[in-house]
Amino acid sequence: MRFGLTRWTPTSTLRWDPFEEMRQMQQHLNNLFKDMNIGERWTELDTLAPLVDVKDEGDKIVVTADLPGVDKQNVNIDVQDNLLSISAKSGTETEKEEGGYMHRERTYKMFSRTLTLPEAVTSDGAKAKLENGVLTVELPKMQIEEKKKILIE
């Protein structure tokens, strides 16, 4: 007796579709998470990687990132060649007392994101500001000398 999938023949009444099995499994998982109310937490986790815009403004690259609820002392920005790394952490603490019971929650979020910029930049003269939850980083482009032609005598 051989184990495994049998070959389909025109007389077979059922045909096994692995993609239909995967669709059904995905639906079961979606229903499971919906029943557990995890959906709200998942959208919260999605915000840990901030939305970022990169704009080339001629002599500089401007990067904006959404960092709601993050204090500027908790943000680190590193730049090397054409790589920009932004990392941050934030935390909240809530406390409430109800019916003689105290409920205290602490939430801490951290993220780190590294972007490849369209051109090499330098940290000399770079500026960064965090205002109303939006980080703006201005990075001057690295000045690369043009090729110089050497004449043969």
How do the helices and strands line up, and which of them pair or pack?
Elements: H1 18-35, H2 39-46, E1 52-56, E2 60-66, E3 75-80, E4 83-98, E5 101-116, E6 127-131, E7 134-140
Antiparallel strand pairs: 1-2, 2-7, 3-4, 4-5, 6-7
How would you describe the overall organization of this protein?
There is one protein chain. The protein is α+β, with helices and mostly antiparallel strands and about 150 residues long. About 15% of the residues lie in helices and about 40% in strands. The protein is built from two helices and seven strands. The chain has helices at about 20-35, 40-45; strands spanning about 50-55, 60-65, 75-80, 85-100, 100-115, 125-130, 135-140. The strands form two sheets. A four-stranded antiparallel beta sheet has the order 1-2-7-6, with no helix packed on it. The chain has a three-stranded antiparallel beta sheet with strand order 3-4-5, with no helix packed on it. Residues about 40-45 have low confidence and may be disordered.
Give the rounded overall mean pLDDT: 80
Order of helices and strands: HHEEEEEEE
The outline comes out as: flat
Instruction: Tell me the CATH topology of the largest domain.
Output: Immunoglobulin-like
By CATH reckoning, the class of the largest domain would read Mainly Beta
Look at the helices and sheets and give the structural class: alpha+beta
Unreliable stretches (pLDDT < 50, length at least 5) are: 39-47
Q: How far apart, in Å, are the first and last alpha carbons? A: 86 Å
What is the level-2 CATH architecture name of the largest domain?
A: Sandwich
Q: Fraction of residues in helices?
A: 10-25%
Secondary structure tally, helices: 2
Strand order of the largest sheet: 1-2-7-6
The major sheet is characterized as: 4 strands, antiparallel
Oligomeric status = single chain
Strand content: 35-45%
The structural domain count equals 2
How many strands in all?
7
Radius of gyration: 27 Å
